[in-house]
Design brief:
single chain; 438 residues; alpha/beta; TIM Barrel; 2 domains; eight-stranded parallel beta barrel; 16 helices; 14 strands; globular; binds D-xylose; binds nickel (II) ion
């Protein structure tokens, strides 16, 4: 018996069910465009918000029943958390989980102890994974909570802090490999600054670039087959984070020669904090060839911070799902529920309800997007909009065969006078809206 044992395993019961602990739309074996729903979505529960967060905020302490939490987590508490987490995962019935080193292990004071405690818990996790058939979507090291990281980890002004971070990443990357993890994530929560007055931005970027290169070198040295992912976020906790969005990450990867080695883990609420649409980030990542994985959640449009709420609006997600379908799905990524309960959601079963609602939302968005892609109207609308580029003129420009002066001469000679053409935006928006019927 654990905190989460009171619920029967969650099953698909269809849209008409009255059971709140059942999936209405997420039917893992349902075929969508030739692939099982489970394989499209590759859903993961995250350890930190679900099991390692007591419901504290900056004005008050924990509100949620999580008896295994305390400032110093003992091995017994870590074990109790592990039991509860895997009980939850098994009953929820989705294939993956994600974790930070410190979410799972007993609190350690030294690096040697850190290494030992991480090994202890990950060995136990491996047994649980084998028994339940649960897989690891990604592991990551927490390089932002401990006071030593207040000034950054890979961008710390102190090389000893940098070395601590390197050790944590090495241990966690190797643990992720042992656990068969499919990706390894780096979220640079404090890789940025609070003030430029005391920050050497160029030096910090070079340190960060070297850090990431070392991670990639080590990945190859140990033969880790997963993908290394950077998770962009514009700010919070720092005033400015260097990985502010997909474009900034791409520029950074280019500067340090890592565009073939590192991809992005895009979080919905981070995109919106950056003043961008989630689908913008997914589309941009595809255009740059660095699309990796997704942290699914949502923000509150009137709050300017990372509220990490569970997604519940399928229509909002459809444009990104169209991108995902065009991408033919994830390679090694998935949808990680980087989402947490509200502080008043104090019942153990709230965690089930939150995930069930979120997973059904993804299923709804997938089905709608699949219909839209199959219908091809939206694709045709886009294709027609660019059709003139298929002309001789378009081909000459696209192939790079023409220079500015020749092109200018040609425009003058032909007396070009292109007529304005409708962008058909309202039609495109209506196509999305009318397919959201699941
Ligand atoms: C915080 C991030 C974090 C990463 C993992 O805003 O989303 O949860 O996903 O370190
Ligand atoms: Ni995240
Ligand atoms: Ni976040």
């Amino acid at each position: 018996m654990t905190l989460f044992s009171s619920i029967e395993p969650v099953r698909y019961e269809g849209p008409e069910t009255a059971n709140e602990f059942a999936y209405r739309v997420y039917d893992k074996d349902r075929e969508v465009l030739g692939k099982r729903m489970e394989d499209w979505l590759r859903c993961a529960v995250c350890y930190w918000h679900s099991f390692n967060w007591p419901g504290a905020d900056i004005f008050g302490g924990g509100t949620l029943p999580r008896p295994w939490l305390a400032p110093k987590i003992t091995q017994e508490m870590a074990d109790e958390k592990l039991e509860a987490a895997f009980d939850f995962l098994k009953r929820l019935g989705i294939p993956y989980f994600t974790f930070h080193d410190v979410d799972a292990m007993a609190t350690a004071a030294t690096l040697k102890e850190h290494d030992r405690n991480l090994r202890t818990i990950t060995e136990k996790m491996q047994q649980k994974m084998a028994a339940a058939g649960t897989k690891l979507l990604w592991g990551t090291a927490n390089l932002f909570s401990h006071p030593r990281y207040a000034g950054g980890a890979a961008t710390s002004p102190d090389p000893e802090v940098y070395a601590w971070a390197a050790a944590q990443v090495r241990f966690c990357l190797e643990a992720t490999q042992r656990m068969g993890g499919e990706n390894y994530v780096l979220w640079g929560g404090r890789e940025g600054y609070d003030s430029l007055l005391n920050t050497d931005l160029k030096r910090e970027l070079d340190h960060y670039g070297r850090f990431l290169s070392m991670v990639v070198e080590h990945k190859h040295r140990i033969g880790f087959k997963g993908t290394i992912l950077i998770e962009p976020k514009p700010f919070e906790p720092t005033k400015h984070q260097y990985d502010r969005d997909v474009a900034a990450v791409f520029a950074f990867l280019q500067k340090y020669g890592l565009t073939k080695e590192v991809r992005v883990n895009i979080e919905v609420n981070h995109a919106t904090l950056a003043g961008l649409d989630f689908e913008h980030e997914v589309t941009a990542a595809r255009a740059y060839g660095i699309f990796g994985s997704i942290d699914i959640n949502r923000g509150d449009p009137r709050n300017g911070w990372d509220t990490d709420q569970f997604p519940n609006n399928a229509q909002e997600l459809v444009p990104a799902f169209i991108q995902l379908i065009e991408e033919k799905g994830f390679a090694t990524g998935g949808f990680n529920f980087d989402a947490k309960l509200r502080r008043q959601s104090v019942d153990a079963d709230d965690l089930y309800l939150a995930h069930i609602g979120g997973i059904d939302t993804l299923a709804r968005a997938l089905l709608a997007a699949a219909d839209i892609v199959t219908e091809r109207k939206l694709a045709r609308l886009k294709q027609e909009r660019y059709q003139r580029w298929d002309s001789d003129l378009g081909a000459r420009i696209e192939s790079g065969a023409i220079d500015l002066a020749t092109l200018a001469d040609l425009a003058v000679e032909r007396n070009l006078d292109p007529a304005p053409k409708s962008g058909r935006q309202e039609l495109a928006e209506s196509i999305i809206a009318r397919h959201c019927k699941y």
